[in-house]
Amino acid sequence: GEDVEQSLFLSVREGDSSVINCTYTDSSSTYLYWYKQEPGAGLQLLTYIFSNMDMKQDQRLTVLLNKKDKHLSLRIADTQTGDSAIYFCAERTGFNKFYFGSGTKLNVKP
Amino acid sequence: GAVVSQHPSRVICKSGTSVKIECRSLDFQATTMFWYRQFPKKSLMLMATSNEGSKATYEQGVEKDKFLINHASLTLSTLTVTSAHPEDSSFYICSASTPEPDTQYFGPGTRLTVL
């Protein structure tokens, strides 16, 4: 089956940039997504990128996609304590199925 | 943005009883809804895909007689956990997909605890 991998933890200081990485295996993925999950809550869509793009910027968020290496990253500029959460990347395959990574827990230290 | 609600947010029930969870898309029509289960500190596991007016498609290993899914309208899908047991305790999350862009919006989740 499809495999989406992320590192489990990332710790940064407030004001620094955070970079969360993700690799996926399905080369036919059409969209790739980043979701944020705060404790005890559902998933909030942060941003998405179409597979024929290599970069998308949305305020403090920058998504980079390297389709050749099947590597996706999310950069959060000027990270704040409110950004502490679990971040999931997900790919949408041609069968309209979503596969999620295991999530990266971002801890922002004041 | 697209909003998806779930009800209830928390439910505690006795072993052997059935529990119904509702998922609603509030400001859009969702032809497809998805049900996920999330274990502690784990990713989401897709349980089933539900299309309005047709039978749900269950993922391998998910018992369709235990997890009954009904998608009666374009804005409502329900998941009923029948004869619940403690191992069914989990966080259940639904999502609804929109055609443009083709993405999923998630509900806030339902914490089910079976005693």
Structure keywords:
A: 110 residues; mainly beta; B: 115 residues; four-stranded antiparallel beta sheet; 55% strand; globular
Gist of the model:
The complex is a heterodimer of chains A (110) and B (115). Chain A has 110 residues and is mostly beta strands. In chain A, 0% of the residues lie in helices and 57% in strands.
How would you explain this protein's 3D organization?
The complex is a heterodimer of chains A (110) and B (115). With 110 residues, chain A is mostly beta strands. Chain A contains no helices and eleven strands. Chain A has strands at residues 4-6, 9-13, 18-24, 31-37, 43-50, 55-58, 61-66, 71-76, 85-92, 98-100, 104-109. In chain A, the strands form two sheets. In chain A, strands 2, 4, 5, 9, 10 and 11 form a six-stranded mixed sheet that branches. Chain A starts with a strand and ends with a strand. Chain B is an all-beta fold and 115 residues long. Helix content of chain B is 0%, strand content 55%. In chain B, strands 2, 4, 5, 6, 9, 10 and 11 form a seven-stranded mixed sheet that branches. A four-stranded antiparallel sheet of chain B has the order 1-3-8-7, with no helix packed on it. Classes of the chains: A mainly beta (110), B mainly beta (115). The A-B interface holds A 30-31, 33, 35, 40-45, 48, 50, 88, 92, 96-98, 100-103 and B 1, 4, 6, 32, 34, 42-44, 46, 49, 93, 95, 97, 101-109, 111.
Write the layout of secondary structure elements.
The complex is a heterodimer of chains A (110) and B (115).
Chain A: E1 4-6, E2 9-13, E3 18-24, E4 31-37, E5 43-50, E6 55-58, E7 61-66, E8 71-76, E9 85-92, E10 98-100, E11 104-109
Parallel strand pairs in A: 2-11
Antiparallel strand pairs in A: 1-3, 3-8, 4-5, 4-9, 6-7, 7-8, 9-10, 9-11
Chain B: E1 4-7, E2 10-13, E3 19-25, E4 32-38, E5 44-51, E6 57-58, E7 67-73, E8 76-81, E9 90-98, E10 103-106, E11 110-114
Parallel strand pairs in B: 2-11
Antiparallel strand pairs in B: 1-3, 3-8, 4-5, 4-9, 5-6, 7-8, 9-10, 9-11
